[in-house]
């Protein structure tokens, strides 16, 4: 590799910025990162900052300087500190006079911040803020104008708190940084006030605001900057200062420290309220940027200080004024999202205010409810108004992005209405119903006025979705059902909302089934409307799911309509699958003979299609059709549940389940499909999904098909070990693993899986297919944890399941570089080792491979595995220590203390201490993890560095 010289660095930077080849850029970037970390960076960084160098070169020099000061401070002796400080100031002053080098100045300020904080941690520069201000004021070596002195001071004083806030370092170091900054804050405020009053430059005023913004983020005493905040609020109308002022005020109002200064809040609130004329003017001019900024300011102040609002609720210049201003931020006479994009910001305030009210006790709570209930009812009206589609139907001309934004906006409004139920209780439903009655009367005069009806229905279904069983007996819901047939539907939006409203009534309809007939007569015709098919299918699924036992009179006609639609093929694939779920619910309540008759009618076409497809030559259309039909059947079978329970909750099995009958008929066709498509992942996933959903639904009812299914799975595995098959095997273990009748069948399936997967590990192919290893180990891990007797039976079955070989495979997966492999491998060892005391095979395997496992884990802990794996490794060590303490103790000392597995830089004393801590933490998972995490940092040379924070 080239030496780290200035010339080579400049060449590498040229490659990075100007070579079109991505591989060349990548190589150059990696080399430059090594250069920054090298000891030579202390020398070349200064040279790269010299006059005449390009901006890219100088920026790299400044970044290298920041990197070294931050990460290699140990290289700086105490005698070198003052020299380094002077050199930094020299560069800061030099770049302060270059207006086109702002980016370099900022990077130098980052380096300077790192210098200040390192000095603070060694108590070498306690009065840093004072000294910096004085040094810049008194600088004579470089000729600086007053504006230049201001700008360099503001840049340094802006970056310092920013770097402190974002520093990823230990708490005590962060505390030292904060102490240095907070102790100098009063001087910063004096300086900022002075600059603000004495200088009329917009650029400098902007920098003053940004500087204050970075300080308030730290949690500095906000009462000290009252005067400056008042000045900023007074100048917010200036376009050039608006954005910076908004950001600064947001940081101020969101600061948790502001709660400590109630008098400051009292002074600021009237000033914020005085912005209302500016807000009104911005709304009149449709100035969306200014509306957005002011809305953020008002709502952040109100949302974060709801206690102040409650305490001053009657004050028009206090709490009441803020509530009214936030309401005005919502009720903009502009259309979202085409004319305004700020009203959603106001939503969360009402959540916060409601929480504050609900937190009041006794009479205070009652009084506040009485005072604000009218406000909340007004809020309901305004939310419904904002949710309304444009009266001129201009939404039909919106772009796809605008329609999506509006859809999400309505969801947010719906969520807000749901939340209001806690405040207003069911009165809110009566309130919206009154508006619906009024809208119905208005629409009688003109059918074009559907918008008000639609938005009332939207509000109603938002509320009804949240109703509990205790308040579901509302008579207004019966009134709603009586109104629904009278609604003249003349728009897609109204029809869509009407369908969702009917869907939201399903729980209520279960207790009032007499209303189902009229509502079903409204829903079913929309199945033939392509634009409304999605909402219709979803509504039908809800109705059939909750009310299927009451739909028996209509079941034949509904099933006939479903069959007709499936034959026509006019629906989208996902709509057909949801329709099949509805069919499953309906078939579940029919007598057995009727159920089979309608099932046969419904599936005849699918059977014929699937049989024909099984004989077709392989092609993408054939494949997609097979997958879709299998998916349809899976969704039908997952809802077709005819099980009945006796008074003790036991399943009554008097007749064979229709799903079993259908699957038995399908088996020859499925076998034929598997012969042709056994290597296709997608078809195998669809096949396994069909049986997985059937097993989940039928549970023990699937028993007659278990043996044939296991036989099919074994055949498939011998050809290709699909992960979907391994995952299905886990479901089989869950349902039938403890069943005495089927235990042998299931154990033979597991043994067959082991015989298939072990050679894949043996050939080294597993590294190309780690997902097979993951599913394999998850299956065995789950079996050992949930069905330990089955696991032992599988291990001992015909000597085909060698646990030593499986241990070896798990070690291979554990040693892979990805996080999932570490997680799965760790879970396997932890679960299997829990059987150590009761299984001689596991004892033998541990005795034979345990030392190698400890070596693998210590190798990773020592720095040869990502740090994200360390918790998984720690769990293995704890399991070994807990279940096989004697051998583990011996292996640990041999490998950790007396071998070269761990880095030579780690002292023997530290290794021995690690072993002692680990052996003492066998009963605490958290303690064991902490010990291993701490030790891995030592091994990687990271202990005590900034990388420890958050780890």
TrEMBL record:
One of its GO terms (cellular component) is cytoplasm. It is found in: Cytoplasm; Nucleus. It holds the Pfam family Importin_rep. Residues 28-94 form the Importin N-terminal domain. One of its GO terms (molecular function) is small GTPase binding. Keywords: Cytoplasm, Nucleus, Protein transport, Repeat, Transport. The keyword Metal-binding does not apply. InterPro entries: ARM-like (IPR011989), ARM-type_fold (IPR016024), Exportin-1/Importin-b-like (IPR013598), Importin-beta_N (IPR001494), Importin_beta-like_NTR (IPR051345), Importin_rep_1 (IPR040709), Importin_rep_3 (IPR040520), TPR_TNPO3_IPO13_3rd (IPR057942). SUPFAM superfamilies: ARM repeat. GO terms for biological process: protein import into nucleus. Gene3D superfamilies: Leucine-rich Repeat Variant. Its main location: cytoplasm. Interacts with UBC9, RAN, RBM8A, eIF-1A and PAX6. Belongs to the importin beta family. This is Importin-13. The gene is LOC100183609.
């Amino acid at each position: 590799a080239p030496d780290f010289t200035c010339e080579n660095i400049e060449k590498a930077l040229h490659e990075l910025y100007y070579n079109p080849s991505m591989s060349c850029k990548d190589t150059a970037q990696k080399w430059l990162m090594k250069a920054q970390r090298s000891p030579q960076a202390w020398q070349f960084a200064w040279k790269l900052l010299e006059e005449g160098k390009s901006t890219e070169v100088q920026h790299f020099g400044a970044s290298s300087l920041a990197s070294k000061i931050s990460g290699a401070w140990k290289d700086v002796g105490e005698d070198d500190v003052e020299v380094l400080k002077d050199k930094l100031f020299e560069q800061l002053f030099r770049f302060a006079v270059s207006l086109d080098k702002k980016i370099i100045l900022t990077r130098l300020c980052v380096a300077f911040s790192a210098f200040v904080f390192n000095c603070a941690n060694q108590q070498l520069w306690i009065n840093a803020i004072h000294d910096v201000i004085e040094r810049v004021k008194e600088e004579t070596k470089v000729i600086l104008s007053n504006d230049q002195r201001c700008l360099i001071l503001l840049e340094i004083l802006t970056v310092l708190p920013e770097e402190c806030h974002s520093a990823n370092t230990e708490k005590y170091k962060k505390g030292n940084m904060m102490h240095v900054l907070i102790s100098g804050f009063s001087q910063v405020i004096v300086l900022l006030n002075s600059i603000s009053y004495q200088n009329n430059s917009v650029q400098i005023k902007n920098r003053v605001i940004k500087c204050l913004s970075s300080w308030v983020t730290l949690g500095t005493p906000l009462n000290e900057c009252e005067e400056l905040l008042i000045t900023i609020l007074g100048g917010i109308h200036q376009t050039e200062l608006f954005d910076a002022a908004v950001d600064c005020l947001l940081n101020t109002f969101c600061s948790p420290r502001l709660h400590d200064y109630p008098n400051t809040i009292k002074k600021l609130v009237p000033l914020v309220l005085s912005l209302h004329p500016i807000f009104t003017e911005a709304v009149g001019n449709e100035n969306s940027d200014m509306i957005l900024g002011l809305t953020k300011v008002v709502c952040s102040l109100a949302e974060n200080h709801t206690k102040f609002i409650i305490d001053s609720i009657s004050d028009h210049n206090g709490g009441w004024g803020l509530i009214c201003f936030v309401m005005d931020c919502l009720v903009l006479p502009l259309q979202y999202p085409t004319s305004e994009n700020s009203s959603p910001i106001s939503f969360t305030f009402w959540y916060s205010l409601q929480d504050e009210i609900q937190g009041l006790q006794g009479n205070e709570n009652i009084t506040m409810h009485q005072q604000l209930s009218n406000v909340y009812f007004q809020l309901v009206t305004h939310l419904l108004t904002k949710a309304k589609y444009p009266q001129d139907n201009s939404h039909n001309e919106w772009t796809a992005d605008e329609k999506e934004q509006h859809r999400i906006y309505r969801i947010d409004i719906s969520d807000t209405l749901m939340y209001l139920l806690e405040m207003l209780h069911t009165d809110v439903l009566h309130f919206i119903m009154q508006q619906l009655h009024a809208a119905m009367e208005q629409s009688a005069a003109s059918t074009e006025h559907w918008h008000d009806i639609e938005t009332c229905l939207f509000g109603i279904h938002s509320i009804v979705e949240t109703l509990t069983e205790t308040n579901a007996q509302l008579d207004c819901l019966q009134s709603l059902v009586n109104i629904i047939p009278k609604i003249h539907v003349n728009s897609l939006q109204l029809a869509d909302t009407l369908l969702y409203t009917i869907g939201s009534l399903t729980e209520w309809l279960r207790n009032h089934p007499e209303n189902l007939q009229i509502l079903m007569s409204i829903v079913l015709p929309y199945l033939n409307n392509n634009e409304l098919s999605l909402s219709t299918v979803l509504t039908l699924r809800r109705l059939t799911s909750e009310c299927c036992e009451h739909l028996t009179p209509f079941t034949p006609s509904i099933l006939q309509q479903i069959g007709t639609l499936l034959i026509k093929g006019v629906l989208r694939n996902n709509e057909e699958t949801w329709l099949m779920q509805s069919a499953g619910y309906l078939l579940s309540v029919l007598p057995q003979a009727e159920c089979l008759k309608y099932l046969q009618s419904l599936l005849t076409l699918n059977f014929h299609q699937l049989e024909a497809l099984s004989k077709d030559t392989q092609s993408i259309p054939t494949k997609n059709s097979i997958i879709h039909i299998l998916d349809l059947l899976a969704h039908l079978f997952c809802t077709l549940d005819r099980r009945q329970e006796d008074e003790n909750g036991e399943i009554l099995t008097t007749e064979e389940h229709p799903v079993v009958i259908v699957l038995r008929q399908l088996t020859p066709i499925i076998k034929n499909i598997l012969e042709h498509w056994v290597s296709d992942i997608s078809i195998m996933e669809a096949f396994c999904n069909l049986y997985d959903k059937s097993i989940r639904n039928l549970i023990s009812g699937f028993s007659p098909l278990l043996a044939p299914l296991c036989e099919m799975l074994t055949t498939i595995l011998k050809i290709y070990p699909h992960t979907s098959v391994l995952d299905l095997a886990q479901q089989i273990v869950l349902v039938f693993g403890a069943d005495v009748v089927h235990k042998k069948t299931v154990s033979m399936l597991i043994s067959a899986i082991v015989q298939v997967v072990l050679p894949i590990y043996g050939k080294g192919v597993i590294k190309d297919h780690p997902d097979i290893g993951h599913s394999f180990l998850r299956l065995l891990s789950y079996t050992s944890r949930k069905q330990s007797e089955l696991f032992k039976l599988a291990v001992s079955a015909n000597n085909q399941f060698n646990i030593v070989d499986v241990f070896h495979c798990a070690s291979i997966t554990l040693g892979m570089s990805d996080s999932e492999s570490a997680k799965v491998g760790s879970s396997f060892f932890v679960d299997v080792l829990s059987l150590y005391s009761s299984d001689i095979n596991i004892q033998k395997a541990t005795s034979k491979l345990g030392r190698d496992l400890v070596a693998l884990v210590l190798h990773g802990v020592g720095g040869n595995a990502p740090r994200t794996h360390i918790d998984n490794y720690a769990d293995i060590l704890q399991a070994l220590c807990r279940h096989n303490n004697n051998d583990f103790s011996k292996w640990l000392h041999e490998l950790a203390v007396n071998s070269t597995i761990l880095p030579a830089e780690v002292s023997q004393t530290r290794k021995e201490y690690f072993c002692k801590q680990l052996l003492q933490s066998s009963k605490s998972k958290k303690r064991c993890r902490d010990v291993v995490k701490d030790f891995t940092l030592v091994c990687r040379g990271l202990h005590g560095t900034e990388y420890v924070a958050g780890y």
